[in-house]
Design a protein that fits this description.
This protein is α/β, with parallel strands linked by helices. It is built from 14 helices and six strands.
Length: 350
């Protein structure tokens, strides 16, 4: 049984504010379109915030962590213990996303969605623990129905905490050894791409390692026979606890009318799952960057979206999403503070 809330209605972004923002962009002292995607970001921001002078002052990054039973198949260059070690690193402020959160002024929250070993109480870490990691999806569903629903709820509760804190923008991130294999498996089914085309190096495995990942995925897809017409079941069978939490996160953020930045490859697999469930959430999602993972382009194409950045990143942790924040702020500042042709007494286009 799926939770009822995933089908709750999604409010529209504010079309009147977007229209006024577009009109203002055409009055600013520049040739129309000359600031490229910065103009589009400003217009979309006006719609997200329902404001004629949009600005993002209260932003929150939520990183969901979970372990994967499929790690037993040797699909990662790092041991599974790294998931727990990285949660501790997040708490201590030593990870890349910690630095990015500090530099951009964003709040950072970490959610233990299902690390194999309970990390115990840690500063900045919310204990969710829908399960102690997923099952090895070569032999069983990654999550039971109850575990999957609990993971979805973790995403919803993270959004609720953000809304109660008055955040204007959310970014979802992930950490979990083995999760590029899970994302490749989910992505392969949802897009129809072969496991070989969808699979990349992840944490840095070599060609032999990528072939092993693709073989594991192909065997699991045959074993489970999931249907792309039931995206939540695909996620339950082949995904991860942190990915299920992100699926709930994107759905709940759009339902709450809060823009949500999608990070990279793993988060895109969760976002595509959410989009297949509720296509109406698309205007509330901002896809931040093109990951170096080869399957990411196929996920973006299936979602019919274009990312803003292309920096060759593939770290995860919401690092690509956080890197977008300064550009989003600049887009709003240009929109709000540039003079119009009339204000500056500059001749407009003939």
């Amino acid at each position: 049984m799926r939770p009822d809330w995933i089908n709750h209605p999604v409010p529209p972004v504010s079309s009147p504010h977007m229209q006024r923002a577009l009109e203002r962009q055409n009055q600013l002292t520049k040739p129309p379109g000359s600031l490229g995607m910065l103009e589009e970001l400003a217009v979309r921001s006006a719609g997200w915030l329902a404001s004629d002078r949009p600005s993002f002052d209260r932003m929150r990054i939520v990183v969901f962590a979970g372990d994967h039973g499929i790690a037993a198949a040797g699909v990662s260059a790092f041991p599974q213990a790294v998931t727990l070690e990285m949660v501790r690193n997040f708490s201590n402020g030593g990870a890349a996303i910690c630095v990015l959160a500090q530099e951009t002024g964003a709040q950072l929250e970490v959610v233990d969605a299902g690390v194999v070993t309970d990390c115990g109480p840690l500063p900045g870490v919310v204990s969710g623990r829908a399960a102690a990691g997923t099952a090895d999806f070569r032999h069983a569903a990654a999550m039971t129905h109850s575990q999957f629903n609990a993971a979805l709820e973790l995403g919803r509760q993270a959004v609720r905490r953000g809304v109660e804190a008055g955040v204007q923008l959310l970014i979802g991130g992930e950490m979990g050894i083995g999760n590029t294999t899970a994302a490749s498996a989910v992505g392969s089914v949802l897009t129809g791409m072969t496991p070989e085309a969808m699979t990349g190096p992840g944490t840095g495995v070599d060609g032999e390692g990528m072939a092993r990942k693709a073989k594991v995925i192909a065997e699991a897809v045959v074993f489970h026979g999931p249907s792309r017409d039931d995206p939540l079941e695909v996620m339950r069978l082949l995904g991860g606890l942190e990915m299920a939490a992100l699926t709930g996160f994107y759905l709940a953020a759009a339902q709450a009318g809060v823009v949500c930045v999608v990070d990279g490859f793993i988060t895109a697999a969760a976002a595509l799952t959410a989009l297949r469930v509720q296509p109406a959430i698309q205007p509330w999602l901002l896809f931040s960057h093109m990951s170096k993972e080869p399957g990411h382009a196929a996920l973006l194409q299936a979602a019919n979206v274009a990312p803003v950045l292309s920096l060759g990143m593939r770290l995860g942790e919401a690092s690509g999403g956080a890197t977008l924040l300064p550009i989003l702020k600049v887009a709003c500042a240009l929109h709000n503070r540039m003079a119009t042709f009339q204000e500056a007494s500059v001749s407009g286009k003939k």
